[in-house]
């Protein structure tokens, strides 16, 4: 089977201006939401406490909000996490509160509300590992609520993460620009970075608009997507170079159109495969991987768009020419690094 | 042209076999085990303990798979949980006797060890270590207050300087000014003498003198190297102390690592109770020096024939002998600056060299001068229980530095000095991050991660095989090899697998298929352009290689940046991501080419290849498409027959 039967080159670049305006508008919208709404940073960045608990019955969020707001921790957030039985309670850092005691206090309050008593249970799992954990046991000797996870991050750690995240982003951008400038030409390097940073901003825009939680793993996803969609642009640039070499009579616009057309089937099939994997994470990965997979999904969709329509167009506006890529000293056809160069003829 | 020399096929086979060997241990899962570790600083767990455990088990008629001593713990593996629990009871009784829970020497606990056959560990084939988010446990990040450690060091320096100058009758007022020690003298010769004396006594301090009006002002600052050493010593000592403290918990594989310049990570699998773990980590062991009561009444108390005299306490030595000491503390661990083992130059045994700070030295000097020939006892207190580490006889007047001699072996001397040093923390620590993950959540996360990878892989497999036929099969085979090699490498370098790490495996596989798609599309393109099958295969791989290399390098740059600046979960993600890119280059280019060569390479008159339909109305460069030219449809699967018969180039 073959999905793509393209008789002639599709004139992508004829509409370059339209695509660029669309990109600009999405980009501006993303920036607008980032500025007005801001990102909902997870406690890894802001510092604070999170407690995750599972109820045997469906958790009544309103009631839980009432219980936790009475503890005097200020702006406490109560949300479902994954299923309707699981809740996550987030407490911001606040002066005058000993952070270390927060998870204990919250669990105690939750336990009391279910008329249970807090204790410690040591049990041996079926496999044979001894496990000690805090427990909440009611009169009937069952556990109405189980503490699944508690996490506590001091404020100083968050600042550092934020800084390191920014450093990581900057070093990815610089590294990729240098490599592309070395391997191709500075015009391509700028085009690729502009196109792909615009993807990153759009992902962040989505997170700001929907107020999805921006955690460390989302940041990792965003940076991975940055590397991934640059690789998309690289494939097209590679083809542009090759086309310049092979067809000497074509104009720059025709070369770019031909390069995009001949790689489009690979672009879509690759992204489709990657997206299947990401979709599988979105479906089966549970709440921890949910926003990570979400960031990747947005990144992959916009990655196709920006590599195909934006990166090449910017390179064109920057005035890329045959002379930029085809040097007088003809490069040998066989790459010396090719591991298959030794294949027997 | 599409043939590999034999050694390349061999390399492929070796890669797969090695991949299998190092991946397989992960599939065995865990087996129940009993772990014996030291519950007290003074208990020593070594290979003798392993022998003892073995004997106890044999005596009780329990058959263990094996008993092994590793690092600081002895572990015995059993086939089922029932035997495990029986063995735990036997060992607890045999090792601890009837000691009350707070002063038991050994922690005997139930936990899990890999079920993989023993011989695999000899070639380092062990499963990946699971992160806390996959197995449950507590994680702490501790901030070490290095400033406090430094403060303490400078304070000590000020006192020591003051004492030294007083001894040398150089009269001045020694003061502390921030991180430096200052003093001034009225005349130059005295100042020079002072600088010389101080430089001799404290070589790691930079002493400078300057004229300050009529006076000469001397300033002492710790040299940068000494400063760094003081900080790294403080961290190291804190880590040693933490290690000793968590050993008593009996948890399997506790992790204590330095993170950054001034942080320590502590991870304790199998424990969810943060409060208990924190109280244990915060527990202090203190050191005290007392004089031994050598009166007749005390002698009676030692043998148990009389009561302990008033004002005395009775403590046990490590070998079980009782020692009666006076209640007054001579000096405490706060005044001990250092303890180092060494050989005893006069006798055949070993010694421990102690260094006291100025206050401790002054007290020791006074006390020892009055008590030559008597015994003093060095005690270590843990959880409120004291134990005599050693009770040497005072041979002469002691000063700032003195030796405890008459220790039988150098290793015992090393143990004692470790105990003396590790009793207390070198610098205070603060909990800045703590996470507790329940065991059910961990198991849940494993299942979620595995399902993500499995279903994603299956979807890609079905699609690739349907779309590229035989080349799709080869692509998925090489993707499977990629997964195999990635897991093998991760196991071999003993990375900690976390949920973000599993996500990175999934993502890496999803991205790695790109290389295969590039190659397959390129081959189709060559076929479309009219190349013979053999030529098309060869040209397809060769032309795609440059692109694959470029695109992988950009992805690798992103991965390396994450690795450089990330911490914790991000680092796990980045390691897997970077390694995955490397293994995918191997599998998608070298390995898949090998499979293609193996299948098609020998066929001289190859007429067609199974790569799915190749549609021949391809675009000519420069021609612009009309709207009706773009046909996207799902055509029937039909391998195409190229017009020219294939011939080797």
Tally the beta strands of chain A.
Answer: 9
Number of helices of chain B: 17
Spatial gap, N to C terminus of chain B? 7 Å
Q: Order of strands side by side in the largest beta sheet of chain A?
A: 4-5-3-8
**What summary fits the major beta sheet of chain B?**
4 strands, antiparallel
Number of strands of chain B: 24
Please state roughly what percent of the residues of chain A sit in beta strands, choosing from under 5%, 5-15%, 15-25%, 25-35%, 35-45% or over 45%: 15-25%
Give the helices and strands of chain A as they follow along the chain. EHEHEHEEHEEEHHEHHHH
Basic shape of chain A: elongated
CATH class of the largest domain in chain A, anyone? Mainly Alpha
What would the CATH topology of the largest domain in chain A be? Answer: Multidrug efflux transporter AcrB transmembrane fold
User: What's the pLDDT, averaged over the residues of chain B?
Assistant: 82
Keywords summarizing the entry:
heterodimer, A: alpha+beta, Multidrug efflux transporter AcrB transmembrane fold, two-stranded parallel ribbon, B: Multidrug efflux transporter AcrB transmembrane fold, Ribosomal Protein S8, Chain: A, domain 1, 4-stranded antiparallel beta sheet, disordered C terminus
Describe the model.
Chain A has 345 residues and is an alpha+beta fold. Chain A has helices at residues 16-36, 43-46, 61-69, 102-113, 155-183, 186-210, 216-246, 252-284, 286-317, 322-325, and strands spanning 4-6, 40-41, 48-55, 77-81, 83-91, 116-124, 130-138, 145-153, 213-214. Chain A has 2 domains: 12-41 and 156-325, Multidrug efflux transporter AcrB transmembrane domain (Multidrug efflux transporter AcrB transmembrane fold, Up-down Bundle); 48-153, 2-Layer Sandwich (Alpha-Beta Plaits). Chain A is built from 10 helices and 9 strands. A 4-stranded antiparallel sheet of chain A has the order 4-5-3-8. Chain A has a two-stranded parallel sheet with strand order 2-9. Chain A has a two-stranded antiparallel sheet with strand order 6-7. In chain A, helix 1 crosses helix 6 (186-210), helix 6 (186-210) packs antiparallel against helix 7 and helix 8 runs antiparallel to helix 9. Mean pLDDT of chain A is 83; it is low at 329-336 and 341-345. Residues 624-649 of chain B have low confidence and may be disordered. Chain B contains 17 helices and 24 strands. Among the domains of chain B are: 6-10 and 441-629, Multidrug efflux transporter AcrB transmembrane domain (Multidrug efflux transporter AcrB transmembrane fold, Up-down Bundle), CATH 1.20.1640; 147-226, Ribosomal Protein S8, Chain: A, domain 1; 286-424, Gyrase A, domain 2 (2-Layer Sandwich). In chain B, 48% of the residues lie in helices and 22% in strands. With 649 residues, chain B is of the alpha+beta class.
């Amino acid at each position: 089977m073959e999905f793509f039967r393209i008789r002639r080159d599709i004139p992508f670049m004829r509409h370059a201006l339209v695509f660029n305006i669309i990109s600009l508008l999405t980009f501006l919208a993303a920036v607008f939401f980032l500025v007005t709404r801001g990102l909902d940073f997870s406690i890894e960045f802001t510092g604070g406490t999170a407690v995750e608990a599972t109820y045997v019955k469906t958790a009544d969020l309103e009631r839980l909000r009432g219980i936790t707001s009475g503890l005097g921790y200020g702006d406490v957030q109560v949300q479902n996490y994954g299923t309707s039985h699981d809740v996550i309670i987030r407490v911001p850092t606040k002066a005058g509160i000993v952070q270390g005691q927060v998870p204990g206090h919250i669990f105690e309050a939750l336990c009391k509300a279910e008329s249970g008593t807090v204790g410690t249970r040591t049990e041996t799992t079926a496999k044979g590992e001894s496990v000690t954990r805090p427990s909440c046991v009611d009169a009937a000797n069952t556990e109405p609520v189980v503490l699944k996870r508690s996490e506590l991050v001091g404020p100083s750690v968050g600042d550092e993460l934020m800084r390191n995240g920014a450093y990581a982003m900057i070093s990815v951008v610089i590294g990729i620009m240098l490599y592309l400038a070395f391997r191709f030409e500075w015009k391509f390097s700028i085009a690729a970075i502009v196109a792909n940073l615009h993807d990153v901003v759009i992902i962040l825009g989505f997170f700001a608009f929907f107020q999805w939680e921006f955690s460390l793993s989302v940041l990792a996803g965003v940076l991975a997507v940055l590397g991934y969609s640059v690789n998309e642009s690289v494939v097209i640039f590679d083809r542009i170079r090759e086309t310049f070499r092979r067809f000497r009579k074509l104009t720059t616009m025709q070369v770019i159109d031909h390069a995009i057309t001949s790689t489009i089937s690979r672009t879509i099939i690759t992204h489709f495969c990657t997206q299947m994997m990401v979709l599988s994470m979105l479906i089966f990965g549970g709440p921890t991987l949910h926003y990570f997979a979400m960031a990747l999904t947005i990144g992959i969709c916009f990655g196709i768009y920006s590599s195909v329509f934006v990166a090449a167009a910017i390179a064109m506006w920057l005035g890329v020419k045959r002379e930029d890529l085809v040097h007088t000293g003809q490069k040998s056809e066989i790459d010396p690094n090719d591991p298959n160069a030794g294949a027997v003829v | 042209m599409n043939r590999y020399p034999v050694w390349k096929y061999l390399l492929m086979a070796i890669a797969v076999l090695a991949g299998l060997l190092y991946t397989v241990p992960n599939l065995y899962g865990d087996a129940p085990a009993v772990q014996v570790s030291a519950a007290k600083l003074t208990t020593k767990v070594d290979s003798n303990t392993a022998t003892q455990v073995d004997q106890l088990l044999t005596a009780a008629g329990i058959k263990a798979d094996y008993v092994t001593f590793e690092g600081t713990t002895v572990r015995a593996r059993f086939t089922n949980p029932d035997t495990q629990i029986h063995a735990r009871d036997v060992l607890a009784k045999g090792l601890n006797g009837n000691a009350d829970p707070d002063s038991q020497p050994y922690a005997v606990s139930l936990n899990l060890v890999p079920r993989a056959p023993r011989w695999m560990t000899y070639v380092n084939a062990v499963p990946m270590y699971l992160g806390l988010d996959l197995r449950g446990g507590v994680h702490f990040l501790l901030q070490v207050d290095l400033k406090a450690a430094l403060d303490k060091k400078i304070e000590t320096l000020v006192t020591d300087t003051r004492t030294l100058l007083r001894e040398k009758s150089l009269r001045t007022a020694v003061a502390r000014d921030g991180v430096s020690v200052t003093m001034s003298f009225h005349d130059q010769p005295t100042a020079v003498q002072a600088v010389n004396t101080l430089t001799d006594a404290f070589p790691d301090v930079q002493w400078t003198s300057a004229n300050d009006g009529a006076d000469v002002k001397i300033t002492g600052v710790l040299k940068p190297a000494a400063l760094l050493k003081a900080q790294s010593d403080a961290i190291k000592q804190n880590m040693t102390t933490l290690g000793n403290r968590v050993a008593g918990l009996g948890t399997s594989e506790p992790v204590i690592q330095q993170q950054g310049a001034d942080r320590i990570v502590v991870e304790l699998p199998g424990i969810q109770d943060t409060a208990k773990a924190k109280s244990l980590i915060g527990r202090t062991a203190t050191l005290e020096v007392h004089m031994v009561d050598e009166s007749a009444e005390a002698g009676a108390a030692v043998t148990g024939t009389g009561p302990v005299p008033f004002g005395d306490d009775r403590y046990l030595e490590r070998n079980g002998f009782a020692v009666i000491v006076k209640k007054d503390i001579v000096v405490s661990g706060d005044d001990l600056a250092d303890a180092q083992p060494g050989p005893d130059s006069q006798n055949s045994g070993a010694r421990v060299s102690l260094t006291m700070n100025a206050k401790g030295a002054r007290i020791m000097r006074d006390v020892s001068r009055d008590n030559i020939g008597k015994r003093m006892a060095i005690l270590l207190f843990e959880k409120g229980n004291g134990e005599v580490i050693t009770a040497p006889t005072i041979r002469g007047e002691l000063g700032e530095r003195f030796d405890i001699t008459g220790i039988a072996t150098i290793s015992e001397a090393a143990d004692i000095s470790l105990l003396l040093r590790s009793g207390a923390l070198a610098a205070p620590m603060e909990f800045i991050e703590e996470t507790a993950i329940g065991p059910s959540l961990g198991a849940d996360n494993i299942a979620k991660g595995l399902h993500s990878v499995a279903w994603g892989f299956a979807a890609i497999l079905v699609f690739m095989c349907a779309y590229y036929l035989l080349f799709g099969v080869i692509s998925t085979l090489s993707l499977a090899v990629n997964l195999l090699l990635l897991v093998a490498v991760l196991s071999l370098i003993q990375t900690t697998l976390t949920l973000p790490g599993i996500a990175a495996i999934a993502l890496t596989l999803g991205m790695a298929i790109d290389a295969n798609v590039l190659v397959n599309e390129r081959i189709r393109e060559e076929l479309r352009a009219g190349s013979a099958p053999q030529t098309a295969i060869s040209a397809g791989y060769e032309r795609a290689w440059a692109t694959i290399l470029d695109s992988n390098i950009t992805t690798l740059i992103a991965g390396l940046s994450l690795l450089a600046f990330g911490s914790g979960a991000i680092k796990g993600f980045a390691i897997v991501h970077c390694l995955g890119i490397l293994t995918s280059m191997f599998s998608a280019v070298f390995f898949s080419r090998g499979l293609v060569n193996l299948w098609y390479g020998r066929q001289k008159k190859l007429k067609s290849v199974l790569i799915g339909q190749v549609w021949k109305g391809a675009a000519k460069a420069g021609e612009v498409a009309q709207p009706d030219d773009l046909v996207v449809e799902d055509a029937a699967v039909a391998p195409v027959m190229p017009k020219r018969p294939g011939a080797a180039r």
